[in-house]
Design brief:
single chain, binds glyceraldehyde-3-phosphate, globular, Aldehyde Dehydrogenase, Chain A, domain 1, 538 residues
Length: 538
Amino acid sequence: MKLNIEKLFPVEQNIPEQYSSKYIQQNYYLIDGKLRLWDGPLQNVLSPLLVSSPEGLVSKKIGEAPLLDETSALEALDVSVRAYSNGRGIWPTMLVAERIRSIKLFTSAMLKRRDEITILLQLEIGKSLLEAEREFDRTVQYIYDTIEALKELDRSSSRFIIQQGIIGQIRRAPLGVVLCMGPYNFPLYETFTTLIPALVMGNTILVKPPRFGILIFQPLLEAFREYFPPGVINTIYGDGEVVIPPLMASGKIDVLGFVGTHRVADALRAFHPRPHRLRCVLGLDAKNPAIVIPSADLDLTVKECMQGSLSFNGQRCTALKIFFVHRSVVDDFIQRMSAGIKALKCGMPWEKGVTITPLPEPEKPVYLEGLVDDALRLGADVVNKGGGVRKGTVFYPALLYPVTPYMRVYAEEQFGPVIPVVPFDDISEPIEYVVQSNYGQQASIFGQDTDMLAQLVDSLVNQVCRININSQCQRGPDSFPFNGRKNSADGTQSVVDALRIFSIRIVVAARESDSNREIINDIVKERKSHFISTDYML
Ligand code: G3H
């Protein structure tokens, strides 16, 4: 098996030309409407797609990006603060229709860079071509859906409400400077699901690319520069531990949009001198369970569980990360899962039909091996042939059974291709697991017995935020709320919720009197205010 995995890595000559020739020398960053030259240190961007050579497997450098320091990060922050200008800047006071126009122009430019960005996603994070294209396309769809939701919001805010002798108009206003930090597994989509709603609501933005998935932003910098006023979007590159704490400690960040671990989120929030003035929109850790009851249709269950645990090598916050399977069906379940894993294609992201690809975090294969070794020591087996074998950046999926509460993999979020299976006799056992868990994002339940399914749903609805029946866990569709309890999230995201979370409701009110009516009518008729207005978009 070791040798076979090694053979997955190509020799240089066998790498398709559009991948082998890709190299981005980025010695500039976007600040104050300019692509400013950075003459400080650069960071090497290495691809997890190792290359086979006479010396063994070697890393390939695919580009360089700026390593900003504290001073330059703080300067970018000051530029964002200035562009917001206490809510009186060009962008926060612009008509919504004009902001939408900028976003549409930007999106058209972004669409022209689809091929380049999807190649970079494959090279930087090892995402398969199919999944990279899906990530790009769902991001674009999210932008269009956001525009439609904003138009709807604008229409419903364009009327006056008269109640208890008070005339009021209620609209949403921006919050200030938003720091957007997406994760490496969905560097484009997850960054844009905070960046776009924050932007369109009139905030100014600082974007910090994740640790992996840095170069994917480079093809977009020119469009950001061209279609938004100077300072509305600024980029921060470099080591997060160096550049982010000073930004938070300044107290000038108004909203933190962050996807990552709760530990980092807590640390970042703690840097802020006035935490009550910081709004946080956080997507955090999760350990979503699958619960398989005796009546489950195993064909369907295994199909969903395979996708739920191994899409993008299990590197999804919504991935199924622990499997509670009733003892009466567990043997059948693990046999089918083993067969399912065997049928998966491993290889480079551009290969047709590939599922298992190299992992971007260099330390991840060793970490996963540690989880497997710990489980083996405590009595579990790897039940699929070759499971847990690693070479270079590839880790072959390991199906672990039987997993017990004493093993690390029972509680730790593996975020990779390790599938722990826990047998149970009574439905109270998985329910108790979820109750005791530090996480509360989603769960999947598999079965046909509606009495038991209903009992499970009713027990889980106050523990997690989405229960999927005979379906894997997932974020989409984007109109659904995406959130979590406990350590799994702060705030709810969906296309509509995100517009709300990056803004605040403001009321302009007046006692209903003839003179106030005249004043309001005059302002509306003469179009004297952007806020007091009955104009709406179609
Ligand atoms: O990693 C978190 C992503 O938002 C997951 O999205 O569930 O649609 O794959 P997904």
